[in-house]
Amino acid sequence: MNLLRTYILPRILQWALVIFVGISATFLIPRLSPYNPVDEMIGRMTAFASIDPHAVVSMRESATALFGLDGTLLEQYGRFWSRLLQGDLGVSFGNFPRKVSDIIAAGLPWSVGLLTTTIIISWTIGVFLGALAGYFHNRRWSQFLERFVVVVYPVPYLITALVLFIIFGAWLQIFPIMGGSRGEPALTWKYISTVLYFGFLPALSIVIGAIAFRFIMAKALTTTEIANDYVQYAELAAVPKRKIILFYVARNTMLPQVTDLALAFGAIFEGALITEILFAYPGLGFVLYNAIYNADYNIIMGVALLSIVGVATAMLIIDLLYPVLDPRVRLR
Amino acid sequence: MFTTIRDLIKFSPSFRFGSLILLIVAVMIVLSFFSPYDPGKLRRKVKRNQPPSAAFVFGTTSQGEDVFWSTTFAVRNTLSISIIAVAIGRGIGVMLGMLSGYFGGIFDRIAQSTVESFIVIPRLPLIILIASILRGSMTMYSLGILIGLFDWAHPSKRYRSQVLSLRERDFTHTAVFSGMSTVRIVIREHLPFIIPYMLADVISGFLFSIGFEVTLSYLGLADLDSPTVGTMIYWATYYQSVFAGRAWVIIVPIVTVVLMVLGFYLMSVGLGEYLDPRKRLVRLSAHVGEDAPDDDSRKEEDEIWAP
After folding, report:
1. Which of A48, A194, A316, B95 is the most exposed, fewest CB within 10 Å of its CB?
2. Could you give the ipTM of this predicted complex?
3. Does residue B221 belong to the interface with chain A, where contact is any CB pair within 8 Å?
């Protein structure tokens, strides 16, 4: 009961607040702009193509309604929420009659798959390598590793992805640079292997940056951790080094890493968006990219809303898992 | 200030290396003022698609730009965008962080929950939403403002915790009891501690804004006619330079970005090591046998820098 009040409830409140602030921001942003997005959009679309007048009228209605540009700001805000709670994000302007929620739902599994895989891989490798390099900080290989990481870490996701794209996709041509899979979706090895093959470069581009980040943090944590008496005691007691690192030191550094994973989740998500755009991977990022080019505001808003809710929820889940990992939180 | 920088260059290899890289960047910026071309009229000046040669050090683009001179302008513009972004982001961050640190109470609570929410919200989709609504009317400067408006949450949290710890220090209590006014305490006693952190923070702000400038320009959401590192990459991919065998058009801006962020990052690593008392203690314990007599003076220094 105590745990619920001091730990779980504040986090759920914070989650609700984040979603409230984020969604309010997406509501306000188009309204603060000096342009009328509806006119802009309709103008751009009718400039180059002849469109059925009925379609134009209903598009204008749909756009005005979604941007809620009729009525006072407060009325608009209320309507915005009530539609949102019904899961109604409006229709796409780019592929007109399709619903935004359908388009996003088609891209979502790809993004979720890419994100979960890359986060698990990068977190494990980063924590492990960081602990090793922190424990053996005087060895040549650990210093070399650290230099490498220091060079890789500040490079933006886009640049990492671009370099991989140029080297492995365009120059050596050993990995595909477009799409997410080949063949009919089915639960056969043939199809799954193409998913892995197509996903390799996009995943690698996220993993590199994320490992570097995790590594730097893990190494710093390990450096402070090994100054503790228990490490010295274990060493004097001739506990195997492997055991000291994996079961004592790395385990103690994992807790702050879990908290930080929640905080870093947003950054990794942004990286995934960029990577998907670059490799034309059919996830949310690619949906977003097409929407930018078609000035498809409904989709851009939908993706923005979904990413706020998704990232906040993922962070909430990680936060709620924390007491399971850390007995101190449970017992307090 | 200058002795600090001199010490850093002397003792921190990463700071030395970082400032060396940034020196190259600075040379590029200076060169941009002596360019034979006008910054607004770079296109259709030279023969297209020329590989690097003696006449064109980095080759030419498909739009007839000299890549070398475009790069000098690009570095200058990207840095100006970043300076605007950093000034705005840190401005809001420092104000909010210090205010909520000093005032506390209800103001602090509201500010903190807002800040926490902004830290969580993924910024890229929101910035893309704004930038795509403003597309066509984006200038270099509005891009800088836009990036800056989204980069204040993390800094403000850091400044707040700085202020909170400074407030509890003995010398603050001494100053309060000896009747020093609050404004004087803030300016005379606390700012000297906050300024070095601000320096490290500003540098990491550059990392963020360079990355965002490149990303937004790559998506075609910036002012595509003014040369920045990001727009250079945008046009290079637009004209398929990778597949057409004109790799120099895209490699030059990529290397430029990497050098810029690496320079800033190495400097911030050097500064961070200098500021972080834990790391200094680790180093001290590593050297304890060699320079034991020095120990006391160093420890004093540690206390000065400790948060």
Report:
1. A48
2. 0.83
3. yes
